[in-house]
Amino acid sequence: MDKFTSRRRATWQSKAPLWPFLLAALLIAAAGGVLISLYASGVILGDGTSGGRALVWVKTLSNIAIPALVIGAAVGGLLNSVFLSPAGRHGALKWSGLLMAVAALGAAPLSVAKGMEADRIGYEMRLKQAVAQARIDARKSETDFYRRLYLLARHQGFGIETLRSADGIKHARETIESNRQLLAAARRDYAAGQAKARAALAGAVVDRADREAVLKRFDAAKVRRDALMDKVWAAHERLIVLDDEEVNLLYANRGHWRPNAWGGGSVDNPRMLDQLRRIGRDRQAARTEHDEVYREVATLDAETNEDIDRAIEIAIRG
Question: What is the pLDDT of residues 288-299, one digit of tens each?
Fold first, then answer.
């Protein structure tokens, strides 16, 4: 105050122009928005659906708006205390609102980019999980069949020593019947697994065009795969029939063969020996055919997986 009057002495702020201080405040607010957007976290992963995308963008907007409010209020307060109030000028709320908008603009580009990436990554995770589950479902019946067939052959199989025992024929026929039941169950479960796999893909791919592209590849491969699997099952059926024929032949001619020291048997009936050799050749032929066909199945699966993966990648990148 002037010592001779009661009037307040004019401050230097009252004589200075506003624009340098306002420009500095705007730059600070914009820089603060950019800086906060670099380190702001807490994004939500999307899943490709409308609801999931809405959540991502709500979170993205909150990552922009909340820091902008804090930065705008803080810089506006600083502007008011350093310049506006000492200069006796009004408009602190107006300039604070502008500073909030500028801070939001500074935070928006990177925050929006993070939101888009979170939406894409979440959708990618969902698609890849669905594809992985679909492949598990598609092969589950086959995997279970071979695993149980191996365990059955290892623990309840029939060999020369088994057939020579008192209840050997009973165990052998039980094993053969178990094989038949396993094969029948595998064939039933195969169709269910393929349907489940298709449903998993259809439910995961949100975009209609992308979904049709993926399912088109799956359906085209399924036609070929079903035909190949019919050959696989047929080969197993022949092996079961041959096992049954061999057991019946050995049981009906118990006096014409005996176990040897190498885990096999010796046969003293030429006709029976010819029949056993023919069964052995037929069994080897069935196994060879099975292996060749299953290699075709594996090749087809690899090609189908590559086609579906490419379609999924297109769906992700959109």
Answer: 999 999 999 999
